[in-house]
Amino acid sequence: MATNPIKLVRPAVPEPATSAMNRACMHKRIRDVLVTRILDGTYPPEFRFKELTLAREFDVSQGPVREALRELEMLGFVRSEPHRGTYVRNPWQRGMLELYELRGALEEFAARMATAKLSEDTSALQAEVDAMAAAAVADDVHATVEHSERFHRLIIEASGNQLLETVWSSLSITDHTALTMVTLSPDLSTIAQSHQPIVDAIASGDIELACRVSREHQAWFEELLAATAEQGAQRTSAVSA
Fold first, then answer.
1. Which fold has domain 93-231?
2. Three-class SS of residue 48?
3. For labeling, which of 78, 120, 148, 213 is most exposed (least CB within 10 Å)?
């Protein structure tokens, strides 16, 4: 009696997690190098990026370069024009200012929706502020950024508005904050302390006060960035003169 041979099907081998992680790390490394070059003037306003040239420089495919440029566009450093390419924004600080303006509006709304709930127990918010302060003492920028993101996320999540959370998360808050640190090099202790008025306002249960200090918190960064942009414009004028 003839028997049919059993065919063994080799299961697909999933891509190692380390490969995906390496790709993610690579595009962030490229992004950070490009930001540094924008900040120091190596890439002046209206500079056009060439994906293939960057891919060769970093010895990668064009994929990680494209991801890096896409993030920089989201963060306001560059603009993309269909069929033309990607350029450094002029001024690039304007993009970051727009993000802080939007964050101010979103987080004011979140405070309005979340204060009544959070005022019952602000211990989680206070813990993040205390962790920021400890990170500042250790001069740990990464930890400061992480705890700042968690602090604001607690308020966003407590608002109970899923669309708000989705929009806020789409702004790449952690990356945006980290690049702000690179741009401004602010005192980390001051950054930590700037969150305390929000905790105090929410703890008081005063919704209007919580809204006001939440917007003022973002406006403070807007003012610092605007001052940085003005200084950059003055330096550019002096060089051109």
1. Four Helix Bundle (Hemerythrin (Met), subunit A) (1.20.120)
2. strand
3. 120
Architecture of the domain defined by 19-88 = Orthogonal Bundle (1.10)
Torsion angle in degrees (nearest 10) through CA of 77, 80, 81, 83:
140
CB 180 within 8 A of CB 226: no
- pTM value? 0.73
**Structural contact between residues 222 and 101, judged by C-beta atoms closer than 8 angstroms:** yes
Query: In 3D, which of 220, 215, 210 has the Cα closest to residue 122?
Result: 210
Give the residue range(s) of CATH 1.20.120.530 domains in the chain. 93-231
Alpha-helix runs per DSSP H in the chain: 17-39, 51-58, 62-74, 93-118, 123-137, 141-158, 162-169, 173-184, 188-193, 196-204, 207-240
For residue 216, give every residue at least 6 positions away whose Cβ sits within 8 Å of its Cβ, in sequence order, or none. 197
Q: How confident is the model at residue 120 (pLDDT cuts 50, 70, 90)?
A: very high
Q: Is 185 helix (H, G, I), strand (E, B) or coil?
A: coil
First to last CA, the chain: 96
Residues carrying CATH 1.10.10.10, the chain: 19-88
User: Which of 192, 195, 201, 215 shows the shortest CA–CA distance to 118?
Assistant: 201
Counting other chains too, the contacts that 39-46 makes at CB distance below 8 Å and 24 or more residues apart are 39/182, 39/183, 43/88, 44/88, 45/88, 45/89, 45/90, 45/91, 45/92, 46/87, 46/88, 46/90
d(C-alpha 119, C-alpha 50), whole Å = 51
Q: What's the pLDDT at 232?
A: 59
The answer to whether 220 touches 104, Cβ cutoff 8 Å, is no
